[in-house]
Amino acid sequence: MSSGLQPEYSMGLRGHWSVPHVATCVRHDHPLVFLYRDPHATARYDNAQHLSSLSASILNRNLDKPQEHPTSFEDWLDERLSDGPGSDWLSGHPLHAASVFCRLLGIALLRLDGLRLDHIAKDSRHALYAQGFEVAHESEEAVRRALMRLQNLIETPQDGPKKIFPALYDRLSNDYADNPDYAAFRRILRDHMASSWPLGPGDELLGEPVHERRLHSVTTAAQETGVDPRRLRKLLLASGLLAADCELPDSWAVFDATEAAPVLRDLTVRVPAKEFQEIIGATRSQFDLLVADGVLRPALETSETTSVWIPGPGPRS
Predict the structure, then answer these.
(1) Are residues 22 and 82 in contact, defined by beta-carbon separation less than 8 angstroms?
(2) What single DSSP character describes residue 32?
(3) pLDDT tens digit string along 78-133?
(4) How many CB atoms lie under 10 A from the CB of residue 237?
(5) Which residue segment(s) compose the domain that 312 sits in?
(6) Are 260 and 141 in the same domain?
(7) CA distance linking residue 105 with residue 149, whole number of Å
(8) What is the DSSP secondary structure assignment for residue 248, as one 8-state letter?
(9) Is 314 inside any structural domain?
(10) Is residue 65 part of a domain?
(11) Of 64-68, 71-75, 152-156, 300-304, which range is least confident?
């Protein structure tokens, strides 16, 4: 006021306050207050015009709210606006895209607490930026771990990525599909799904059709071969295609589809020892001698299932 100007000409708006991802002033620990809206750009940026009708309320502190400390995300954002990108992983990406990604990841992470976006009051949703930021600023690997934690909440991939990664999958596969600023975030989600989802022809991966299956799950392989999932899992474990310590349910227990192709093909013809003995016309004692001498060998060395013999034109070596 020492300038002698009218209040509306003495007041100013910090540029940081106009960034859509900001909800608190880091200098004053005060929530940002909505002042006015104008559809016309020229009038919208005429601050003096709008502040003239608000100056009395501002000076009388009628618009003041209880102090609120800025979140870690807002501190990071303010530092980046003031000093440029930092050394953390998130700072290596375009500012707007990184901020949007934090919010989208924050929305997805609500599911770890059994919540959805509509459970959160609109005036509290800004905290979602901080929830996503706490993971995203750490590293790309931290983001991948968070995606896996979310995925483990869902019993089957058939529930779809939009249920598992709400908002995040939809925006990256549609709204930001062609925006290069989001390319790194799309790659992370794409690589995660490509390495852990049993996607096959007819499925989509971030809006792009899948033409060739890279991974099978116990469930999809059982559907393809017609083999009972319990028997199939034992055979996959015996053949080493499925890790011995795999505790994932059949729908998420995945393995390389190309590597497994010969095994899955053989599974449709494997038979128990008694049936194999009858096919080759041997008595039980003859069969046992052929096995003992190594002339006949089972397709799988396992005690978990009896169907390990593959009928063929001659002995297996």
Answers:
(1) no
(2) -
(3) 899 888 888 999 999 999 999 999 999 999 999 999 999 989 888 788 899 999 99
(4) 19
(5) 269-317
(6) no
(7) 12
(8) S
(9) yes
(10) no
(11) 300-304
Integer Rg of the chain from CA: 31
| Residue 311 belongs to a domain | yes
Q: Is residue 66 part of a domain?
A: no
Within 8 A by CB and 6+ apart from 119, the residues are 110
Helix, strand, coil fractions of the chain, as percent rounded to 5: 50, 5, 45
Residues 6 or more apart in contact with residue 139 via CB below 8 angstroms = 89
pTM of the model: 0.74
Tokens representing 2?
A: 């020492």
Q: Which residues contact 235 (CB under 8 A, 6 or more apart)?
A: 227, 263, 267, 270, 300, 302, 304, 305, 307, 308
Using an 8 Å Cβ cutoff, are 137 and 90 in contact? yes
Looking up tokens 């128990």, which residue turns up?
Answer: 272
Express each pLDDT in 214-266 by its tens digit.
Answer: 999 999 998 887 778 888 898 899 889 998 888 899 999 999 999 999 888 77
Q: Are residues 37 and 86 in the same domain?
A: no
CA distance 69 to 49: 31
> How is residue 260 written in tokens?
């497994």
The answer to whether 97 touches 181, Cβ cutoff 8 Å, is yes
Alpha carbon distances (Å) from 251 to 47, 68, 130, 233: 58, 45, 33, 11
What are the helix (H) ranges across the chain? 7-10, 41-44, 47-51, 55-59, 72-83, 95-109, 127-136, 140-151, 161-164, 168-170, 183-196, 218-225, 229-239, 257-267, 273-280, 284-292
Domain count, the chain: 4
Verify that 26 and 112 share a domain, yes or no. Answer: no
Q: In this structure, which amino acid lies at residue 65?
A: K
**What values do phi and psi take at 41, rounded to 5?**
-60, -45
Same domain, yes or no: 279 and 253: no
The residue among 209, 236, 253 that closes a domain is: 209
Same domain for 205 and 80, yes or no, is: yes
